[in-house]
Automatic annotation (TrEMBL), chain A:
<feature type="region of interest" description="Disordered">
    <location>
        <begin position="853"/>
        <end position="964"/>
    </location>
</feature>
<dbReference type="InterPro" id="IPR011989">
    <property type="entry name" value="ARM-like"/>
</dbReference>
<dbReference type="InterPro" id="IPR002553">
    <property type="entry name" value="Clathrin/coatomer_adapt-like_N"/>
</dbReference>
<keyword id="KW-0677">Repeat</keyword>
<keyword id="KW-0653">Protein transport</keyword>
<comment type="subunit">
    <text>Adaptor protein complex 3 (AP-3) is a heterotetramer.</text>
</comment>
<dbReference type="Pfam" id="PF01602">
    <property type="entry name" value="Adaptin_N"/>
</dbReference>
<comment type="similarity">
    <text>Belongs to the adaptor complexes large subunit family.</text>
</comment>
<keyword id="KW-0333">Golgi apparatus</keyword>
UniProtKB/TrEMBL annotation, chain B:
<keyword id="KW-0968">Cytoplasmic vesicle</keyword>
<keyword id="KW-0813">Transport</keyword>
<dbReference type="InterPro" id="IPR022775">
    <property type="entry name" value="AP_mu_sigma_su"/>
</dbReference>
<feature type="domain" description="AP complex mu/sigma subunit">
    <location>
        <begin position="1"/>
        <end position="145"/>
    </location>
</feature>
<dbReference type="GO" id="GO:0005794">
    <property type="term" value="C:Golgi apparatus"/>
</dbReference>
<dbReference type="GO" id="GO:0030123">
    <property type="term" value="C:AP-3 adaptor complex"/>
</dbReference>
<keyword id="KW-0653">Protein transport</keyword>
<dbReference type="GO" id="GO:0006896">
    <property type="term" value="P:Golgi to vacuole transport"/>
</dbReference>
<comment type="similarity">
    <text>Belongs to the adaptor complexes small subunit family.</text>
</comment>
Amino acid sequence: MGSSIMDSLFQRSLEDLIKGIRLNLLTEPTFISKSTDDIRREIKSTDLHTKSVALQKLTYLSALYGLDMSWAAFHVVELMSSSAFAHKKIAYLAAAHSFHAATDVSLLTTHQFRKDLNSANPFEVSLALHCLSIIATPQLARELTPEIFTLLSSSKPSIGKKAVAVILRVFSEYPDAARVCFKRLVENLESSDPHTLSAAMGVFCELAVKDPKSYLPLAPEFYRILVDSRNNWVLIKVVKIFGKLAPLEPRLAMRVVEPICEHMRKTGAKSLMFECVRTVVTSLAEYEPAVKLAVVKIRELLVDDDPNLKYLWLQALTVVAPKHLWAVLENKEVVIKSLSDADPNIKLESLRILMVTVSESNVAEISRVLVNYAIKSDPEFCNEILGSILSACSRNVYEIIEDFDWYVSLLGEMSRIPHCQKGEEIEHQLIDIGMRVKDARLQLVRVGRDLLIDPALLGNPFLHRILSAAAWVSGEYVEFSKNPFELMEALLQPRISLLPPSVRAVYVQSAFKVLIFCLHSYLFYRETIACSPSSPDNFVTESKCPGSDSAIVAADCQQDEVFNPRASNQFFEDASAEDVEDITVTHAQIPNSASLGKDGFTHESIGNLLNLIEMALGPVSGSREVEIQERARNVLGFIELIKQELPGLVKKEGNFEREDLKFPKIIELMHDAFSKELGPVSANAQERVPIPDGLILRENLGDLEMICGNDQLPTSSSFSFGIPHYREKVGLPQSKGESSEASTESTSLLAEHRKLHGLYYLPSEKNDISTDYPPANDPKLQDNLNDHAKDLVKLTEQSLLQKKKPNHAKPRPVVVKLDEGDEAPIAAKKLELKEDLLSGAVRDVLLGNEDVSTSQSNLTDKSSSKRRGKEKLNADQPSGPKEVLGDVGNPNIGNSSSRRSKHHGHGKERRHRSPRKKDKEREENGQKDKQKSSHRHNRHKSRQRADGPNNVVTQTPVIPDFLL
Amino acid sequence: MIRAVIVMNTQGKPRLTKFYDYMPPEKQQELIRRVFGVLCSRAENVSNFVEADSVFGPDTRLVYKHYATLYFVFIFDSSENELAMLDLIQVLVETLDKCFKNVCELDIVFNYSKLHTILDEIIFGGQVLETSSAEVMKAVEEISRLETASNTITLVPKSISGWRS
C-alpha cells in the first residue's frame, strides 16, 4: 500500500525511463521488464496524470522496443475521455499505435470521437482525425461519417485538410460513406486553400490508382488543376491521376498530353519533371513528340552525377524501352557504362533496360557482353545478370532463340562461371531444351560431356544440379554421343562420390542407358554383318537406314517413336503378342548404331565396359541411399543376365559369331524402354483429362480413408486413381461402397485401367502441341489432331506408323510448345472477381454523377453551354446537379424505407442543411438500392456495370463536353 | 501513400516509428531490423532508393537519408513521387533542426512525443499535408503550449475529472 503511494509520488517520467534505459544498456531487457511492471501498476491509477505518464511510457516501449500493449487498450479509452489536452494527446497517440480491427474496445471510443470531432478546440479535432485516419474501423467510419461530412467544409483550413485526408480511410473502411461525402470532397477540388486542395488531390490520387475508371467523370476538374495549379505537390498528384485516366480514354490523353509536356519544359522541379516523364512514357507512349521530349529530358539528366536522378531516369528508360527502342539506342553508352556503376540500384536498372531490348537479332551480342560483365562482377550482381539472361532467353518457350546450339553452349559457359548459383535454372533449361528441341540434342550432349568429364566441377556444390542435368541429357540422348565409352568413364569416375545422392542416382541411371545403348549398337552391328541383307520380317525398315548420316537418321527415329506414346506403358504393364510386334518393328529402326559400331564397338571394348561398370558400381550396390542402391543393383543384375544370355561377350572373340546370331530379346526390350521420347507436360494437363462417367470427384472421401486403413495402405498417400483400382482388382468387399465409380465396377478392370491411362495422356498431348509452330516435320501430330479423341484411345501403333512422312530440313528448330494460354485467363478472372468493395461503392456514386450528364446531354443538344451554366451554379450551390440526379436517376426510392429513416436521423443533426440533405439522402438510397439490385433491374446501372469497355464507351460523350 | 516512417540510428536502434497501417509490435520490430539490414549494407554516395517489395509487400519503395548517426526512412507506394519523398525527408529534418537548434540524436531520443507532434503535422494518415517547416513549427508550438497549459490546469481538478467518466 505504502509503496503504491510512493510510486505515484515518485513516478518515473518518460524521460526518466529513457535515461534509465541508456544507463542500463547491458541489462536492458531486465530494466524494460521491470519498467513494464511499474507501468502495469501505474496505469491502473485513478489519477489521470499518473495514468497518462504510464501510458506514454508504454507507447514508447511498444513502438521502439516491440512491447505488446494490447492489454492496455481499455486504459487508452479511459484516458481519451480526459478533458486535459495533454492526456488526450497521449491517449490518441497510444490508440493510433496499438488499436486495430480486432481491438474490441474501439467500439467504446465512438462517443469520444464524436465529441472531439465536434470540439471547439481545433487541436482536439485534429487529434481525433489523426487517430481515425489510422485506426478507423467500419463501425467507427459509419458512425462518424456525419461529423466528418461537416468538417469537410470547415472554415479552418487546418481542420479542413485533415478532414479531407481522413476520407481516404473512411472510404476504405465504410464505402457507403462515399454516398454522403463524395460531393463535398469534389467541392474541395475548388478550394481556395492550397493545403486543402493538396489534400484532396492526394485522396483522389489514391482513389484513382486503385480504380481509375470511376473517376473519369472528374476529368474536367483535374484538367483545370493541371493547367492552373502552380503547386508542385498538387501537380505531381494530378499528373499521376492523368497517368491512370489517360489509357482509358484516348481523347482525354490527347487533351492532357500538351499541358503535361508544357510542365516538362518549364518546371524547375525535378520531381515534377520526373513525374511528367514517367506519365508520358507509361501512359502516353503513343504520342511521339511527347515521348521524344521525355527522352530528351531523360538524356539531359542521365548524365547527372546524382545517383538518385540517374537511377530514376534509368527507370524511366526501362519503361520507354519496349515501345521505343530508339530511346535506348540513343543512350546505349550510358546504359552500358552504368553496368559497372558503384550503385547496385543503377547497375540493376541498366541490366533491366538491356534485357528489355533483347530480341532475336541481338540476343547473342547482349548475352556476350553481359556474361563478360558477370565474370568480373561481385557474386550478387553476377547472379542477377545470369538470372536475367536465363529468364529473357527462356521467355515464352525460348521465343528469341534462333540458334539453340549457341544457347546450349552459352548455358555450358555460364555453368562454369565461378560465382554461378543458378544451377537449378540451368538444370531445368538443359533438360527442357532436350525435351522440346530435337535439333539441339547433339549440342546438348556435347556440352553435357564437357561438363561431365571435368573432374574439377564436381567440387562446386552450386554445379551439382547442372551436372545432374548433364548426366541425364547424356544418358537420354546417348545416341548422339561421339564416344559413349568416354561418357561412361565420366559417369563412373571415382569423384562422383562428392555428389549428393539424388544426383548420383541420375548418374547411375544414365550409365545404365549408355550401357544399353552400347550393347544394342554392338550386337546390332554384329548382326547386320552376320545376317544376309534380307533380314527377317522384323527388320522391314532397315533397308532405308544404311548410308544416311547417323545424326539425321537418329533424329528421324526419334520422331518415329513418338508414334507410340503408349509403348512404354505397354512394355511395363503387359506386353501382348501384338505389342511385342509393334515394338520390334519400331526398334528395327535404330540403325545409327551400325555406323557408330564400325568405329567404336569392338568385342573387347564392350568387355571392358562391362568390367568398368561392375568395378564402379559393385561398391555402390551396398549404398545406404536406396535410390543409388536400387539403380546400381539394376545395372549389375542386368549385366549378370547379359552374361548368361551371351556368354560369348566375356569369352574370347573366336566363338562369338556362331553363338550369338540371335539378338537377345532382353536388350531389345531394355533399349526400347529407354529410347522412348520424353516430352514436356503441360501444367494443366490434368485438368484436361475428361472425367469418366460416374466418377464424382467432389464426393466426400471420408469413407475411403477407412477403407485404405483396412488395406494397410499408408493413409498419407495421395488419392490417385490407383487406389480404387487396386482395391477393386483385389476384390475387397469394401469396393461396393464406392458406387460413385460405377464405370469401374466392371470385371475387366485391367482394360479399364489402361483405357484410363490412354484417356489420361493422349488427349492432353494432342492439345499440348501448339499450332504456332507448324509442325512440319511432325506431320503425325497433325494427324493426331484430326483424329477424334475416342479413336485415339484405341489407335494402334501400326496405323500411326503408316502415316510416317519424310524428314524436312528447317531453319529454326521446332520447339515443342505447350498450350499455356489456358492459365492466364484463369488468373485474370480471379482478379476480376476480387473486386474491391471500396471502388465498387465509389463507382456507384460516380456513375450516378455521370448519369446526370448523360441524361442532360440527352435532354438537349446545347448541353455543353447549359452545363457550363450549371457548373457555375455549382460554385454557389454545389449539389445542384446532384439534386437533379436525385430525381432522375432514382426510380425506386420506395424500396429502401428502412435505410432512409436511418439517414433522416443524420439529417436532423444538421438542421441547416436539411433540404439539400434530403435530396442527397434520396439519392443515396436510390443508389444503395441500385447497388443492391443491380443484377435485377435498373437500366442505368445494368448498362454501366455490365462490363468495363462498355462503361467507358457510355462515358465518352461526357468528357469532351466538360473539357471544351 | 506513405506506409511508414522510421528514424533509426546507425546501429539499428529505432528512435521513432510510425506505421500508417496497423502492424503488431513484433512485426514492426522485424521490419525495422530488415530495413536496417538493407541500409547498413549500402555504401555512401549511392542512390537513396531501395525497392522494398521483399520487405513491405508489392508496390512499395523505400527512401532513406543518412544524417550523422541517424537514418531517416520513408516507406511509400506508387502514389507518391520518389523525389518528392526525398524532399519530404529534408523538410522533416529541417523542421527538427529548427525545433531543437542543431538537432542531434540525443534530441530525438529525449523528445519522443514532440517528434510525433512534428511528424503528425507533416504526414497525416500517410498523406502529405504540410511541407513548410515554418507552418509546422507554428502548429507544434501551439500544441506544446496547449499541452503545458492543460497540465497545469489539471493539477487541481484532475481527481474530479478522473471520476467523471
